[in-house]
Fold:
Amino acid sequence: EDQVTQSPEALRLQEGESSSLNCSYTVSGLRGLFWYRQDPGKGPEFLFTLYSAGEEKEKERLKATLTKKESFLHITAPKPEDSATYLCAVFSNYQLIWGAGTKLIIKP
Amino acid sequence: EADIYQTPRYLVIGTGKKITLECSQTMGHDKMYWYQQDPGMELHLIHYSYGVNSTEKGDLSSESTVSRIRTEHFPLTLESARPSHTSQYLCASSDPGTDTQYFGPGTRLTVL
Structure:
């Protein structure tokens, strides 16, 4: 069964404290792994797509990496405005399979 | 990036009422989706469409129905709302080249 698991469920960091979020997946045929950011009461906002193991993408303080079993979202020197829930999804067959997300809180 | 709109943003209604949640996109995307999301939980696909006159049910059983008469419009209807329908409903459309889905702001539905 296709499955996406994100860890940790929640992460509290001090401003400037770097860390990583994990997304592990089991799918029958990966056609892409997606990272989104979701603010409270809003729809998910697209961040990155990764298609093959070894691929990396960066945007400001965020960097996403992909292996054959998991993806990491690295956040470097985060700021309070980076606080949000970060969602991971994998494209398998005809639809996206979503993780439950990691709630990231950055304290000033 | 897609421009995708949902109305209303918030809706509080009584049990038994019929409601329609509106979703429109201006990018000409053929594929559109409806998701249901409860607080702190993953998104669940309830309906999708690959183009005009095409609609399919997703993995999550839902008592709602959808229609796709125009490319840009994908409304979701609940014939008789119940408290169990209380949730956030998210509409999305996808870029045909990358399969990237772009989301609207969502409708927060509360059924009393």
Notes: DSSP finds no helices and eleven strands in chain B. Residues 13 and 21 of chain B are 13 Å apart (CA to CA). The radius of gyration of chain B is 13 Å. Chain B touches chain A at residues 1, 6, 40-45, 48, 58-59, 90, 92, 98-106, 108 (CB under 8 Å).
